[in-house]
């Protein structure tokens, strides 16, 4: 069946809306550039069907536990209920199940193959598997929540003026690049804790700065404003030596695979906790940050 692209659509959001895998949607549209969808463009949709089942909330339910119970992914369940407040489910509330869901108890999910131990404290979720198992970006916390939550971590390293420069630079680079400022913020915290003086790593590739970019600039105390802005540009829009978040998203069409590519350089699309020689829990942590989750040692 065909699908007509609407304003704001991405391959990721369309796959979640229709309850199919991202890979199946891409395979059905081999000539379509994921980074350049046009409103009104018609896509082929393999095996898509509307939701056909309902579920009534009982005591103790969360969207995660329901997804396990009915045998669907968390991302598909969230996409089938776009207006739901996941943090405020009510007993007796009726939600929609994606097509293909069951109604009984599914087997307990296996732990992430390479994700490492799950952090304690807070409301950290052990997302695993392909991108479709990770939260729909429409459910991410808003900018104000994420800035308040993460800027307090920067106070361990940075002055108030440096934190203000980080905030202003995120806004500037987001406007220049089109990359969601929440993504930029959470990858800054993921890579460096927001520490402008973070050390440069070099494991065959030099990774400096707030976003540990590909051979970009480091903090310059003689030019804090200029160097902070450039560090964030390097990580977001890339350098002459390597890709930034923008290029990774253009290649993969969804943020979770883009995060794995940014961290590892290559992607196991079936298991985003596969470190591919880098950090196993990188994508899982980034997803939790974007959802506004907190945990010990975040």
From TrEMBL:
UniProt xrefs under InterPro entries: LysM, LysM_dom_sf, Lysozyme-like_dom_sf, Transglycosylase_SLT_dom_1
Region of interest: Disordered: 100-122
Domain LysM: 1-45, 53-97
Pfam families in alphabetical order: LysM, SLT
Signal peptide: none
Full protein name: Transglycosylase SLT domain 1, LysM domain, Lysozyme-like domain superfamily
Organism: Septoria linicola
UniProt lineage: Eukaryota, Fungi, Dikarya, Ascomycota, Pezizomycotina
């Amino acid at each position: 069946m065909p699908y007509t692209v609407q304003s704001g659509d991405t391959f990721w959001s369309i796959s979640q809306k229709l309850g199919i895998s991202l890979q199946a949607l891409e395979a059905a549209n081999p000539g379509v550039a994921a980074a350049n969808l046009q409103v009104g463009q018609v896509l082929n949709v393999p095996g898509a069907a509307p939701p056909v089942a309902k579920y009534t909330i009982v005591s103790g339910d969360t969207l995660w536990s329901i997804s396990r119970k009915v045998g669907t992914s968390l991302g598909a369940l969230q996409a089938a209920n776009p207006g739901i407040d996941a943090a405020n489910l009510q007993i007796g509330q009726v939600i929609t199940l994606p097509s293909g869901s069951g109604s009984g108890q599914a087997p307990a999910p296996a732990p992430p193959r390479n994700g490492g131990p799950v952090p304690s404290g807070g409301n950290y979720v052990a997302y695993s598997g392909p991108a479709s198992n990770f939260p729909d970006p429409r459910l991410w916390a808003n900018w104000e929540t994420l800035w308040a939550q993460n800027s307090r971590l920067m106070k361990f390293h940075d002055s108030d003026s440096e934190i203000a420069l980080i905030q202003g630079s995120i806004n500037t680079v987001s406007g220049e690049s089109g990359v969601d400022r929440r993504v930029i913020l959470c990858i800054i915290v993921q890579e460096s804790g927001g520490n402008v003086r973070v050390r440069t790593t070099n494991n065959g590739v030099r990774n400096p700065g707030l976003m540990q970019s590909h051979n970009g600039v480091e903090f310059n105390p003689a030019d804090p404003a200029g160097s902070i802005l450039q560090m964030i540009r390097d990580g977001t829009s890339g350098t002459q030596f390597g890709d930034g978040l923008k290029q990774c998203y253009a290649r993969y069409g969804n943020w979770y695979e883009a995060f794995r590519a940014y961290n590892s350089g290559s992607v196991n699309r079936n298991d985003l906790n596969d470190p591919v020689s880098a950090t196993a829990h990188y994508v899982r942590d980034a997803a939790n940050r974007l959802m506004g989750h907190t945990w010990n040692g975040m």
